[in-house]
Prior knowledge:
21 strands, single chain, 43% helix, 17 helices, alpha+beta, 5-stranded antiparallel beta sheet, 631 residues
Amino acid sequence: xxxxxxxxxxxxxxxxxxxxxxxxxxxxxxxxxxxxxxxxxxxxxxxxxxxxxxxxxxxxxxxxxxxxxxxxxxxxxxxxxxxxxxxxxxxxxxxxxxxxxxxxxxxxxxxxxxxxxxxxxxxxxxxxxxxxxxxxxxxxxxxxxxxxxxxxxxxxxxxxxxxxxxxxxxxxxxxxxxxxxxxxxxxxxxxxxxxxxxxxxxxxxxxxxxxxxxxxxxxxxxxxxxxxxxxxxxxxxxxxxxxxxxxxxxxxxxxxxxxxxxxxxxxxxxxxxxxxxxxxxxxxxxxxxxxxxxxxxxxxxxxxxxxxxxxxxxxxxxxxxxxxxxxxxxxxxxxxxxxxxxxxxxxxxxxxxxxxxxxxxxxxxxxxxxxxxxxxxxxxxxxxxxxxxxxxxxxxxxxxxxxxxxxxxxxxxxxxxxxxxxxxxxxxxxxxxxxxxxxxxxxxxxxxxxxxxxxxxxxxxxxxxxxxxxxxxxxxxxxxxxxxxxxxxxxxxxxxxxxxxxxxxxxxxxxxxxxxxxxxxxxxxxxxxxxxxxxxxxxxxxxxxxxxxxxxxxxxxxxxxxxxxxxxxxxxxxxxxxxxxxxxxxxxxxxxxxxxxxxxxxxxxxxxxxxxxxxxxxxxxxxxxxxxxxx
Length: 631
């Protein structure tokens, strides 16, 4: 199941169970429990619908992740560590076993039913998103439309009424007060600039005071924020019918809590006057509810409960207060125990990332592992890492004896896992190298490994131990060798050197012939043959090159690597005749000054005729990769 859907459904189910439990309790606590406490409990339940806080052993986590049972993948180990004559007969069996157990895993985890999975991924999530957009947009549209309607007929109140309001809000600023002939009941509206709006009719001083007491209490309780939160949660859980019953219950609890706060310091006569004011306001209701949907105005059928609550109100004893606090804590605890279905713990071992100086961080491929998940144990066995299909993102370019940094963090905000080394193996040409050639150390939780001294391609196999298990990883290190992202380069393959956009991308994807320099400009000559391209390199920011300059020594690293880059360029640009790589041992000022580039290497297409038709070579990436590996 899609993780977003799992989160929403688990939140919805968790919140619904909590709401139904409190619905069931309501007849027993309706007039015994403080209305404010009841309101707080409904807010906690509302938050359960939207806040994905949970424990790993929560009910919802078990319900929504129970299908992910322990898995065991059995693959012949070390099957590929044989001589060449044996590989031909053994490898097909390895592939068959891997596919066999992949199918078995798909069946166990419920992923084999691709039809249902595709429906969930492609349609259900989109339907849910569409529903959220529709319900939310409808509410916002109604609210904005109602605000516009109000502004057209709002009237400023008199000075006496403003003084009465100021005496009740006790320093709360930015509260506006209006009369409006088009509203049928007093209301508080607005979050940023709240305003109280009352019908444009005559009220006695006592009635106006009671109205303002009620609306300013809503303001102090932040009830407008709660109403907006309720609307947002209802939009998210539009598919859950319980949410609509709960929405009405929250609105009712909000009014009851407001009434209780107002009357707790009133005398019996004042309580009677407050109740009379409620009756008067409801009796004078002249307009249909539809115009006031955005304000969530009270309904007549709740009046009886409100009046009974006013008449039965009495200050709660200390025991009642303690029991109320216990009930609130109990609701929070049950909410956390129900939880959500997104907390998986460390279901899978962490990825590890490998970087070298001035190189993009690469990701190792995870192989066999033994991992603990809660009370379960996952054992996964893969083919030997020497036979992994390593791609550009798994290959690190490094200089001789350069430090490689290995970490479980790709970004600083990523979770960091502590680990120790169980084993490090390095292979070259499928031959295991001597262990005493490996130099490693730990600094700040990162593993530092020194690259080999000799030029070549090496496969590193690391076995790391974590608190929850042991994991094997594999990655490739190319020492003093250029590494090409041929898949990305091929996307910009073009028959014309005049296609400046594609040519610029090709130049940008080329590795720099020397790490201290970076590619910045390109220049094309396409007016007449021979068609030529010049790729310009300059000193990278904050770096210095201290070697020979200008370069005059034949077959320097600059010239050797530029020659390899030229082969790739000719393979990607069909009608290119000549390519030049120009270098300056300084930084440009934002404009191309070719006179500053005092080291350059030029290569004609004919210099690479030994590789045959370079256009066809560019069309065959596997063959091009083989050619580059041999250089």
